[in-house]
Amino acid sequence: MKRAVVLLSGGLDSAVTLALARAEGFESYALSFRYGQRHAQELNAAGLVAQSLGAVEHRIAAIDLRLFGGSALTAEIEVPKNRDAGEMTTGIPITYVPARNTIFLSYALAWAEVLEASDIFLGVNAVDYSGYPDCRPEFIHVFEQLANLATRAGVEGSRFRVHTPLISLTKGQIIRRGLELGVNFSLTHSCYDPAADGRACGACDSCQLRLKGFREAGLEDPIGYAG
Prior knowledge:
Elements: E1 2-7, H1 12-23, E2 26-34, H2 42-52, E3 57-62, H3 85-88, H4 100-115, E4 119-121, H5 137-149, H6 152-155, E5 161-163, H7 171-180, H8 205-216
Parallel strand pairs: 1-2, 1-4, 2-3, 4-5
Helix pairs in contact: 1-7, 7-8
């Protein structure tokens, strides 16, 4: 089977991406990050998702982006709550972690090269997202070019491809596709600022986009909410 590295946060989108990689016949190697995020419990969800969807291996890379801060997810900055759709689609929010997807993809590229895998899967989305610049097709295209210029495998003729199967789907479409592929959404975790008991806040941008997706899909979100 073909091998692929799949970036897995433990959230809804990355779970569906892992399921899609499996459906396309890839032997999946899941990669998550403990990067100093305030919602580190997503890593527990990532482990459960990786197991449920048949990942060959699941690794967690430890890096500390708190060293730089600059984000509500890695510094003592309040996570925005209860923003309306207009606010969420205007500007780059404070939950943006500087260069996060560039860093994550670089780690995925390194592991892919060791595995002799030519494919990397990433669950970014350019429709229902919170304005992050590293979720855009333009970024993915340029990173793919970089991957083929900056690696021994690329120089020797292997072509890396970064798959972004969700990039043009709405959250509702992603949820429906995940259900078709057998994703257990009760295992996933999307909240940026969970309560002490682990329940999602229901008010951060990520929670609101998730809830909007389930409404669009005509379904009830199976996870618990604090609010």
